[in-house]
Write a structure and sequence with these properties.
This protein is mostly helical. The longest helix has 19 residues. It has twelve helices and no strands. It has two domains: 44 residues, Arc Repressor Mutant, subunit A; 141 residues, Tetracycline Repressor, domain 2, CATH 1.10.357.
Length: 198
Amino acid sequence: MRSDAQSNRMRILEAAAEVLSAPGGASLKSIARRAGVGQGTLYRHFPTRESLVLEVYGEEVDQLVAAVPDLLGALSPQRALCAWLRRLLYVGRCMPEFADAMSEACESATERCRRAYRPLSDALSALVAANAAAGTIAPGTTAEDVLVLLGPLWRVGVNCAEESRAERLFEVLMRGLCPEAPPKEQGRGRDQQKSSAG
């Protein structure tokens, strides 16, 4: 990438991080304006809103992807899945723009949108495959199925009462995904997640 193109990319990411952290909607037009570039330049670097948002939250994505081998090495497949999904739920509830981008990319039929969330999808697929091999997940479950089921929980509020509700609904989700895992085993995954996934 040429130096001017690299500079434009960095300015776009910096502007997007600022705009996304502010209350209210964040349009691509407002991000381009803050970065001092034209919308055409923005779209050349980030053809979809989802690809831009997921790039802004790249550190969170990298941490989630990197956690999978460690979780599978330290925990049973169902506990590893529970710990990883709980972390993903936390990130999505704290960062609504990230959750929206994930949901839209997951449901999109376009290849460019699907590329934006592929690293997380691949990471989740590894966890689902490990559980399928162990016989600890509902037969036929895919990573896309899990993300679709998790999506509504991202929209549960972040106050204390809603946090308890999100946790209760998450445990219901896990019992549905891994019906052979006792409920208390799912809860124990929370402690394991803190030590294994950060």
